[in-house]
Structures are given as C-alpha cells and as structure tokens.
Amino acid sequence: MIITLTTDFGQTDAYVGAMKGVILSIAPHTQLVDISHEIAPGDVRHAAYVLAGAAPFFPTGTIHVVVVDPGVGSSRRAIAARTPQATFVAPDNGVLSLCMHESGQVEYRQLSNSRYHLPQVSCTFHGRDIFAPVAARLAVGADFKDLGPLVTDPVLFSPPPVTRDSLGCWIGQVWHIDHFGNLVTNLKSEILNFEFQIPTLHIKVAGRHIAGLARTFAEREPGELLALVGSSGCLEIAVRDGSAARLLDAHTGDKVLVWISDESKSG
Amino acid sequence: MIITLTTDFGQTDAYVGAMKGVILSIAPHTQLVDISHEIAPGDVRHAAYVLAGAAPFFPTGTIHVVVVDPGVGSSRRAIAARTPQATFVAPDNGVLSLCMHESGQVEYRQLSNSRYHLPQVSCTFHGRDIFAPVAARLAVGADFKDLGPLVTDPVLFSPPPVTRDSLGCWIGQVWHIDHFGNLVTNLKSEILNFEFQIPTLHIKVAGRHIAGLARTFAEREPGELLALVGSSGCLEIAVRDGSAARLLDAHTGDKVLVWISDESKSG
Amino acid sequence: MIITLTTDFGQTDAYVGAMKGVILSIAPHTQLVDISHEIAPGDVRHAAYVLAGAAPFFPTGTIHVVVVDPGVGSSRRAIAARTPQATFVAPDNGVLSLCMHESGQVEYRQLSNSRYHLPQVSCTFHGRDIFAPVAARLAVGADFKDLGPLVTDPVLFSPPPVTRDSLGCWIGQVWHIDHFGNLVTNLKSEILNFEFQIPTLHIKVAGRHIAGLARTFAEREPGELLALVGSSGCLEIAVRDGSAARLLDAHTGDKVLVWISDESKSG
C-alpha cells in the first residue's frame, strides 16, 4: 500500500520522521512517498495546488496524507475523503479542494474515532497523532466507515475565477509560481481553446506584453520572456533559462490578461 | 528492515545517494527512510535533538544511521549502540545522547571490524565507507558483537540544564528553533507541572513578556506572540501564522524565564 | 527493482510527486530512491557530477532517471543508456557523460517508441510523460531494444581538462562546490600520485596559497584553510568547520594550481 505525504514541515525538524515512524509502526509494509515537505508554512492553497498536480498520477487505492494545518487544535475538523481513485487524510481546511473538484462521488468522514489515533493526542501535532495513524490503519484494512461520522459540509474552495470582459478579453491570474520561477496561471487551454491556435494571441502580465505562444522554452532565446501551455494544461509565463517571477517581480494573484487583436494593448 | 538516515549532507551532492546505494547493494530489501539531511553543518546538538524527536516513533528493531561528523578521520571513534528498541550507528561525538537518555540498558560497540566496512575507507566520508555498510550488514543479520569491542565510555552530553532561582523562577533556554520559527525550550511540562495549570503563569524571553499559556495557536490572533506546550512536551514560544524567531530575533541558547506572579516582571 | 531520481525540480511543486506516481502506477513494487532534486536549474554539468558520484554505489541493474532538461520539447533526443552495471534514462544533453566515462560498453537507444510513453506527452514535462514511464516499463521487463533505434552519437562531454605547464605545475579547476562549501577540484589523486606524498606540495586557488596536504579536517584548526584528497579521490580545498567557498569567494571553474617547490609562489 502506498501512503504519500504532503506537508509544510520542512526538513530541519523531526516532524516528518516522527510521522513516518508512526506509519511504519502500524503498517510496516507501507511504501512511503514524499510529495513535498516544502509547502509554504500554513499555505493551504499551495498545498491544494501541489496535491492536485501529483495525486492523479498515483495508482488507484493510494492514501494521501496532507498536513498543512494552521488551525491545528482549534475546532477545525480532521477528515478523510474517499474517491473511486484514492483516499485522502487531512485537516478540513480546504486543502483537498482541487483534488475533489472533478472526482465524482466522494465520501467524507470526520476522524473522531479515537481508537485510530495515538493514545495521547497533542494540541499542536495532529500529523503525528491523528493523520499518520489513521492513514496507516486504513492501509492495513481499517473500515473507512469506522473513522467517524459522515461529513456533508467539508470546507471546499474553488480555483481562482476566470472572467471575460465585454471586449472578449480573458482575465485570470497567476495561480502558482514554481521552483523555476514560471508563472502558472489559472487560464486552462480548454477554456481558451480556439484562441490558443491563433498567432495574434496577446498576453499581459505585470505590465509586460507577450505576443504569441511558444510551444517549448527552446523556441525562444535565453533570457527571453515567453508564454506557453504548461504541463498542467494551463497558460504559463516563463523566461528561457531564467525566472519569470524574478524578471517581472510577479506574485501569486497578479492579474493576467489574454486577448486576440491585431493591435497590442500594451504600453 | 528499516534503516533511517539523519545527516547534514544537504541535497545538492551525491553524498546521500552514495550512502543509499551502498546500503541497497548489501541489503536490497531495506526500507530506507530519510529523517533529515538538513541538519546544520557539523551541528551535533541539532542532530541529537532531531533524532530524539523521531526515533522513538519507529518500530522496534529499526536501525538509525546518523552522520553529522565534523571529526571524521580524526581519532573520534565510530560506534553502534543497541537498546531494546533500536540500533544506532554513528560517530562517537554525542549525537546519540538524547536518544540514550532514557533508553534503559544500552550496549555500545566500536566499529573497528573492517570486514563490515567498504574495502577502501576514505578519510572524509565514513557515512558511505563505514556507517552505511555497517548498518546494512546489521540489517541482513550481522552479529552486533562482531562489530568491534565494547565501548564503556561513549561521548554523551546532557540536555541543557533547567535551574530555579531563590524566588521560584524557572530558568531554561531556547533549545531548538524549528522550521516555523517556533522557539522550543528545554522546559518540560512535567517539570513545570503545577505551574502550567495556573492562569497567572508568566514567561520572559528575548526581552518580551508573555502572560498565560495558550492551548493552540488558534486561540491567539494572527501575528500575536504566544506560549504553549508543544508536541515534544516542552514549552514553546510561537507567533500565530508567523515566526517567533524572526519577531524576537531569538537564537538557540537564549534564556527563558517562567514564573508565577500577580505582577509582571516585564518592561 | 530500484529506480533512482535526479532532477532540478526542487521540492515546492508537484513535479517529483507526479513522476513517482507514474512510476508506481506502472511498476508498483519499485523501490524509489531520491538522489537529488536540488540540482541547480538547468545545470546539466551539476547533474552529471552528482549522478557520477552516486550511481556506481547502487546494485547492478539499478535504473537511474535523470531529468535536468533545459531543452525539453526541442529537437534534443530522449535516450536510454545500458551499461553492464545499470540503465540510465535521460535527455541526450550530456548529463550521462561522467557515468559513461569509464563504463566500458554502452548501448544507447532513442526513446522514440511512444508505446512506452504516457498517452499524452506534453511539450514541457518529459520527466512525467516519457522518462518516468520508460523507466517503469524497463523495471517490469520491457525489452531495451524496443525503446527505439540505436543512438551512435550521444552528446557526451569530457571532465574539465587538467594540464601541466613547462615548470611541472598542474593546472586544474574548481569542479564542484558542495553543500559544506568545499571546493572539489578535477585534480585526481592518481594523476598527482607521486606529488601527494610530498610534504612540500603547494596549492594556489583564488589568490590563496596552501602548503601541504591534510589527511582530515581535524588536523587543522577551526576556520583554517586546508587541502586534502576528498571522498571522490580528487583534491579538495576546505575550511575546517567552515565554508571555503565563502571564505575565498570561489566559484566553479576557478583555476587551481598544484606544484612542488621549496619556495612558495604565493603573495
């Protein structure tokens, strides 16, 4: 059985190791897979984004544990979610939103059955004391229904919205900035469908104008700003052999405009 | 068999990979678990702290390899330690101190039997040439006694001391600063026992006064300084959704005072 | 079967997790081993260096996947290389050069058989869409010959050259700077053979002179600059309990001189 881990714990502490120890003590034959421990501290949307980019590629039945949990110890619930493809164990703070988005039928349970937790549960480390043991017990055959009562109102947020103005200009935003400094937008190639084929496509972001789409980084000169459809199927702004985030001083949430025109709106 | 790795090697070099290759060449069915490779370079106390926070959660029989080894190649010994719960393989520089602290009976051996090492041992990378192969051979059944002679005087240091002044004020220190900037102190909740229940508990650290304990981060406002009992059972100073280390410009070793009073000593 | 991963993807994105998911979906019993995901972005030489330092220690038959791929989506080929010891899957950009250097007979194949790829191949993430599935299918028994046609002209670069001037002075360079700030040079102890035994060996780097070789860091005082033969068999410049890179403001490619003399050339 595979259990993946996605946390904001970093790698200078014992937190990740303690979780792994708890899991292997209960389910010794688990295949542990680190997705990321470098989620920005407390950044639920970052975690949701990363999880949604990785989880769909795992085998059916994989258990994904997510611990980005700024509300630990408060009244926020701990939950598990089961889809036809996978099981998720996480705080009920929206971190699963993007995975559930297109998952079809999902069953949510509150992790209230303390028999599946460690005997002593701290107020500040439910990753070790609740999420890890619950995931491990599921891996060795615990019944999903036994975790606790059904949850019918899990916290779920929507991806950032895309709008279109009266002139037909799409308005999206920078959704994620990756390790390379690429700006991943929320403008999906399906939405823009027709436009992506058009050579006169225009993009404006952080005060800069980009004309046309590249297919790959290599089609541009080193240091040149470019736009392309990235591996997640969304429009990305990048710099060949460089960082668009640094070049443009861009941030998550920055507005991105896309339109078709013979005349540039830039400047 | 599980072998965990705790090093200060970082992740930009071949060092960790070489150790993993050596282990898997000798013991192909080992389950390798990274605890941390981001121990501060040469910081034996940091490594001891992290190891002690993770090791107790692993299954009985786990082998923990620790390579934080500023004295590599010098006369410092290489050792293994066996407790009823686990086996540790490490340089004899105190890095196991906090794990041994409450381990009951421990047997130490010097890793002098070169039959368990790689054929060629470098002067600067005993992680690859001694510690990894010794751990792997233990994993496939080597006799602990064969590693080398008993060690009766391993290097062990104590946790930083807690004292109490004539007015009853506990004096401890910042023991560890975690990834979130939380200041973990050496003031254990058991020691302070009675005081932790008292609403008029006062804490002073880095020139700042904190009145009362929180149970969770969520009980305070974002950005607010707070004190709570952390997941290790020790008093922690934290900032909700922020970094206490940055806010207070605090460092490991900074003095922490705890007392009960109707009047604040701050200011 | 063991599959190792070496990438420049960092750990804040879904990229590594997606690759792991793809591999485990095809080859569920694979033992995944991270060598590094902290290769400098697009730095093929860094990746080649790290891979060559780790791969030789893995068991025969290990599959190494390397994704440092600034030319992704361009006409650069995707290849696999099979040696008597291991199989490598990587872009054809020279990243395998240092592993092939002394590997004896190598068979290269172009990864043109799309039956081994994911059904949809993006233009920007061949790690997930080509390299991971090819490695996984090899792990479950795919025939190496089926991957695609033979490649007879893979991109291979040589290690940086060592020369010797008319006075017998060896001229090499800083080849790699490690996590500790040690300057690993390309001057192999075999080349310098005789000289390394001689107490009057002199080294000049970044304007500083070092007389004699240490055997270990511990032979020098904390903060002192020293030279020694490192774990890769090459001359290294280091600072005990410190960073030579920072002390000398040294960079990869900086010239390193080694000579024997009774008089120092420094100053």
Description:
The structure is a homotrimer of 267-residue chains. Chain A is of the alpha+beta class. Chain A contains 6 helices and 14 strands. Chain A has helices at residues 15-26, 44-54, 97-100, 126-139, 189-196, 244-248, and strands at residues 2-7, 31-36, 62-67, 78-82, 86-91, 107-110, 163-164, 170-177, 183-188, 201-205, 208-211, 225-229, 234-239, 255-260. In chain A, strands 7, 8, 9, 10, 11, 12, 13 and 14 form an 8-stranded antiparallel sheet that branches. The first copy, chain A, has a 6-stranded mixed sheet with strand order 2-1-3-5-4-6, sandwiched between helices. In chain A, a hairpin with a 3-residue loop joins β4 (78-82) and β5. In chain A, α1 (15-26) runs parallel beside α4. The longest helix of chain A has 14 residues, at 126-139. The first copy, chain A, starts with a strand and ends in a 7-residue tail after the last strand. Chains in contact: A-B, A-C, B-C. Chains A and C meet through β1, β2 and α2 of A and α1 of C.
Give the helix/strand layout.
Three copies of one chain form a homotrimer.
Chain A: E1 2-7, H1 15-26, E2 31-36, H2 44-54, E3 62-67, E4 78-82, E5 86-91, H3 97-100, E6 107-110, H4 126-139, E7 163-164, E8 170-177, E9 183-188, H5 189-196, E10 201-205, E11 208-211, E12 225-229, E13 234-239, H6 244-248, E14 255-260
Parallel strand pairs in A: 1-2, 1-3, 3-5
Antiparallel strand pairs in A: 4-5, 4-6, 7-8, 8-9, 8-14, 9-13, 10-11, 10-14, 12-13
Helix pairs in contact in A: 1-4
